[in-house]
């Protein structure tokens, strides 16, 4: 029975690795496809070449988790088929198209685990395309994987736990942090106290990061709304509004993010039903507690299935592994499954608290100046979205795309999709949910025209 | 002027490459993005406004860091490891 | 339940329906356009965007010429130029046999005003050095071109609305019948329409409306798959097609190239379709070989759409054979974009004058009744042998 199972796991981060582990332990050999050269995902991203830094330097308080995950994945090497630096660019019924090393290969699967992770959720502001503006996640990758700061004098801006974590990591690594600009009011942080009983470690660590930043004399501003990043060829400063007053600061780099957004393109191509998640202000594949989507045999785990963080991703990934065994009528550890679901439930409750402590700036989109670039790829301005809503009565996001090109470029709306939906909703007076969900299209990332097809690969 | 600042990995092996016709040096384990932006300020230019771009997400999502090799191939700078002898351009032929 | 009385009810807000609505409004008739979704969101909006007369069956040429006169006037008609470029359409022949077919076609249409220019291998190389590979020759139709279907189809709907047509989107027609006092159409929107005339321009969804009036048609569906490249430096100066099909391509002013030549696959709900990996890659590779400037370019997006398809490649246009006041205009078989604005005018002629000066006899709906035997035999025509939407 188990010999006939051919699970495909997309993503070798915390969720994908833990799913693979469960399957491998049951004697099933999954195919694990990951875009990165090494396993670990974005959060536990590994260096390509060893250097002088310790795991503690790289992953801080999460070093033991990172090391454990890397070791688990290394130990799985003989029990899984692993394709690093490979892109699943299309999903059909029980078949995936995978681009690897200039060739496209088809992989048939019986079960599909989508552990596709997340990237920074961003909204545009004046100057956000200037060299030196990176996402918070990007700033963190530069440091962890590449040992680089994004500049000599860095401002971190936005909301979410990552804001303080990355600023603190930069501080520890010896970079100059010019300021932390929090888009949420200070009072919002008091919500964290509600999380103390359930997740004291996480809460106290967050408080420590902020306290150390302040202790080292780094200005932390709350209730900030960006006005513009200044510069031409590169960043030279940032201007923002705070309590009605305009301020500016010289800097040469900005790390920016507003929480995370799930990578859901493959779930869409796989035909999964999506639901609107009020907390994430985003659409995500509908799934049960075990990670089963609406499509039989397709599972979603980790931040790609709704943002919940790395700890939840490990638990959810493992849970999908068990779900595949359950759905194939193979023996499972029901005690373990109950524990996983209980822990996931607790994290989910804590997520609601985090969201209140780091709220998304809901008024941002409506206040954007008309001439700000909304879609980085196609360079379409905020005004074009508003004009489409006003003059062409556009009330739906895919219609907006069709008429304005917003989301049609290389990134397929990854960087502008949040803003497009927020701007459209505010312009046409509908809810974020009502303006709908940007449909995904294959290939989910650019493919060279001279990609070798399957028929030529033999 | 460089955009990125190296805080670690400075002693790793040198990887020679060419950027816009100029011989350059990166470090073992560098992505193209790191190697280029520790030396210069941009990776590409918008096809529409011509404005400079230097990547954004550094994790293969934003697609805003594609560079071109001398023979015309496109490489996503943030997810491609620097290899000795790479001949990279920040403007494709025909783009002014 | 309210009832809206109108001179003309148009089922289907694609290019044919909305251009008919616009023409009818100019004649002073009241018009209601009903679309089950957004106007122009199906074949009219998701086709390749070829504005091409060359290669059409002879019977379509007069209609195509009528539309040809409309395209340069889009700005005045609908408020935007729709990115219409009179680039010319170059049809390539990869073999001598294909070249002979182009020559035969050119001879047959010689008096119809297409001004085709035939060229051999060397002439082609000289004039279009950016085309590589085994090309025996080509036929150029200098007056043809391409445009942006997404924008054109939406703009026709808005222009019709501005001209006074009542455009009802997300309003599927559940039932239509002819009563002594005219047509009655019931919709899911709590509103009924009473009309003197009905136009069935429902594209791939038109067959049930024809069948409701005792006129079954062998209307199939095709799902063209298009590939969009990243923006590249201007290279492709002409809209490219190929005798025998398999590839067509154009470059828009922003630099993106749009390449087609294969089909997508329908989803379980056959209203929807999706690209398929292997055929998409094969057409990408064909483009990379034929156009060296695109060799390393990236495909950034595929799309597919649903188009109505007739076994003889000709649309159904004209009066119903069973029901006075009913006019059909559907089944453009992947080649409707260019002629649609002309068809809209013809539909308006038929309603206003009872006839059209443009010959449309070849498109009568009862041609399938007349030649019933084997009419569906070639429904499964090899997809890659046929151009789509050019």
Automatic annotation (TrEMBL), chain A:
Residues 8-309 form the FAD/NAD(P)-binding domain. Residues 378-451 form the SoxA A3 domain. It holds the Pfam family Pyr_redox_2. The keyword Ribonucleoprotein does not apply. Keywords: Oxidoreductase. One of its GO terms (molecular function) is oxidoreductase activity. Gene3D superfamilies: BFD-like [2Fe-2S]-binding domain (1.10.10.1100), FAD/NAD(P)-binding domain (3.50.50.60). PANTHER family: ANAEROBIC GLYCEROL-3-PHOSPHATE DEHYDROGENASE SUBUNIT B (PTHR42949:SF3). This is FAD/NAD(P)-binding oxidoreductase. It comes from Microvirga brassicacearum. The lineage of its organism: Bacteria, Pseudomonadati, Pseudomonadota, Alphaproteobacteria, Hyphomicrobiales.
UniProtKB/TrEMBL annotation, chain B:
Transmembrane segments: none annotated. InterPro entries: 2Fe-2S-bd_N, 2Fe-2S_ferredoxin-like_sf. It comes from Microvirga brassicacearum. GO terms for molecular function: iron-sulfur cluster binding; oxidoreductase activity. The keyword Membrane does not apply. The keyword DNA-binding does not apply. This is (2Fe-2S)-binding protein. Keywords: Oxidoreductase.
Automatic annotation (TrEMBL), chain C:
Keywords: Oxidoreductase. One of its GO terms (cellular component) is cytoplasm. Residues 7-350 form the FAD dependent oxidoreductase domain. It holds the Pfam family DAO. The keyword Nucleotide-binding does not apply. InterPro entries: FAD-dep_OxRdtase, FAD/NAD-bd_sf. One of its GO terms (molecular function) is oxidoreductase activity. This is FAD-binding oxidoreductase. It comes from Microvirga brassicacearum.
């Amino acid at each position: 029975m188990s010999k006939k199972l051919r699970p495909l796991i997309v993503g070798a981060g915390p969720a994908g690795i833990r799913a693979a582990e469960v399957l491998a332990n049951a004697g099933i050999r999954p195919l694990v496809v990951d875009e990165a050269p090494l396993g670990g995902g974005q959060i536990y991203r590994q260096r390509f070449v060893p250097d002088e830094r310790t795991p503690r330097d790289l992953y801080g308080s999460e070093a033991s988790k990172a090391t454990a995950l890397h070791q688990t994945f290394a130990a799985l090497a003989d029990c899984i088929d692993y394709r690093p630096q490979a892109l699943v660019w299309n999903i059909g019924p029980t078949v995936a198209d995978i681009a690897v090393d200039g060739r496209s290969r088809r992989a048939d699967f019986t079960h599909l685990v989508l552990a596709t992770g997340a990237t920074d959720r961003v909204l545009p502001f004046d100057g956000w395309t200037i060299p030196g503006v990176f996402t918070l996640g990007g700033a963190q990758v530069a440091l962890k994987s590449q040992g680089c700061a994004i500049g000599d004098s860095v401002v971190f801006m936005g909301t979410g736990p990552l804001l303080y974590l990355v600023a603190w990591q930069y501080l520890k690594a010896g970079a100059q942090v010019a300021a932390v600009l929090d888009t949420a009011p200070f009072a919002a942080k008091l919500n964290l106290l509600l999380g103390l009983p359930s997740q004291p470690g996480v809460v106290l660590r967050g408080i420590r990061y902020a306290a150390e930043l302040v202790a080292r004399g780094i200005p932390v501003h709350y209730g900030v709304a960006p006005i513009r990043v200044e510069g031409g060829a590169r960043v030279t400063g940032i201007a923002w509004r705070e309590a009605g007053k305009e301020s500016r600061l010289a800097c040469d780099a900005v790390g920016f993010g507003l929480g995370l957004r799930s990578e859901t393109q493959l779930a869409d191509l796989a035909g999964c039903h999506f639901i609107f998640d009020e907390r994430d202000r985003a659409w995500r594949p509908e799934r049960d507690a075990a990670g089963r989507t609406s499509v039989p045999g397709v599972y979603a785990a980790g931040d790609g299935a709704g943002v919940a963080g790395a700890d939840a991703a490990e638990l959810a990934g493992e849970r999908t592994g068990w779900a595949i065994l359950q759905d194939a009528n193979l023996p499972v550890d029901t005690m373990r499954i109950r524990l996983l679901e209980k822990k996931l439930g607790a994290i989910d409750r804590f997520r609601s608290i985090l969201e209140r402590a780091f709220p998304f700036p809901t008024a941002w989109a409506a206040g954007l100046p008309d001439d700000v670039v909304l879609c980085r790829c196609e360079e379409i301005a905020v005004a074009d979205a508003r004009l489409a809503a006003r003059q062409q009565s556009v009330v739906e996001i895919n219609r907006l795309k069709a008429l304005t090109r917003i989301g049609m470029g290389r990134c397929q709306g990854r960087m502008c999709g949040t803003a497009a939906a927020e701007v459209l909703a505010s312009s046409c007076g509908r809810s974020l949910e009502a303006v709908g969900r940007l449909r995904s299209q294959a290939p989910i990332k650019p493919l060279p025209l001279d990609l070798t097809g399957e028929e030529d690969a033999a | 002027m460089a955009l990125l600042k190296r805080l670690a990995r400075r002693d790793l092996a040198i990887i020679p490459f060419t950027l816009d016709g100029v011989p350059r040096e990166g470090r073992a384990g560098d992505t193209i993005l790191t190697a280029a932006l520790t030396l210069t300020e941009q990776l590409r230019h918008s096809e529409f406004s011509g404005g400079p771009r230097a990547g954004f997400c550094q994790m293969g999502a934003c697609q805003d860091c594609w560079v071109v090799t001398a023979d015309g191939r496109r490489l996503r700078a943030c997810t491609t490891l620097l290899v000795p002898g790479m001949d990279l351009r920040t403007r494709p032929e025909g783009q002014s | 339940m309210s009832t809206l009385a109108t001179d003309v009810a148009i089922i289907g807000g694609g290019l044919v329906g909305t251009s008919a609505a616009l023409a009818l409004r100019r004649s002073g008739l009241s018009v209601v356009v009903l679309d089950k979704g957004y106007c122009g969101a199906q074949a009219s909006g998701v086709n390749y965007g070829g504005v091409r007369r060359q290669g059409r069956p002879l019977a379509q040429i007069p209609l195509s010429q009528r539309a040809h006169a409309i395209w340069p006037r889009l700005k005045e008609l609908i408020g935007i130029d729709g990115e219409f470029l009179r680039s010319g359409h170059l049809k390539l022949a990869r073999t001598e046999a294909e070249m002979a077919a182009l020559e035969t076609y050119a001879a047959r249409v010689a008096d119809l005003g297409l001004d085709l220019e035939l060229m051999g291998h060397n002439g082609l190389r000289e004039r279009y050095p950016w085309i590589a590979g085994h090309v025996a020759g080509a036929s150029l139709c200098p007056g043809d071109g391409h445009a942006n279907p997404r924008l054109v189809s939406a703009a026709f709907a808005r222009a019709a609305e501005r001209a006074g047509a009542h455009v009802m989107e997300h309003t599927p027609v559940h039932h239509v019948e002819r009563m002594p006092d005219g047509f009655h159409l019931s919709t899911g929107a709590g509103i009924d329409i009473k009309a003197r005339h009905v136009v069935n321009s429902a594209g791939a969804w038109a067959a049930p409306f024809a069948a409701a009036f005792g006129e079954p048609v062998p209307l199939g569906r095709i799902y063209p798959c298009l590939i969009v490249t990243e923006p590249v430096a201007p290279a492709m100066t002409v809209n490219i097609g190929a005798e025998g099909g398999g590839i067509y391509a154009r470059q828009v002013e922003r630099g993106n190239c749009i390449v087609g030549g294969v089909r997508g696959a329908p989803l379980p709900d056959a209203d929807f379709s999706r690209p398929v990996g292997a055929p998409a890659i094969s057409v990408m590779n064909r483009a990379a070989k034929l156009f060296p400037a695109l060799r390393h370019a990236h495909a950034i997006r595929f799309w597919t759409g649903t188009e109505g398809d007739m076994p003889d490649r000709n649309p159904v246009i004209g009066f119903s054979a069973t029901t006075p006041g009913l006019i059909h205009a559907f089944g453009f078989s992947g080649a409707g974009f260019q002629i649609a604005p002309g068809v809209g005018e013809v539909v308006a002629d038929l309603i206003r004058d009872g006839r059209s000066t443009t010959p449309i006899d070849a498109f009568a709906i009862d041609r399938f009744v007349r030649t019933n035997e084997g009419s569906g035999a070639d429904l499964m025509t090899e997809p890659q042998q046929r151009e789509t939407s050019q």
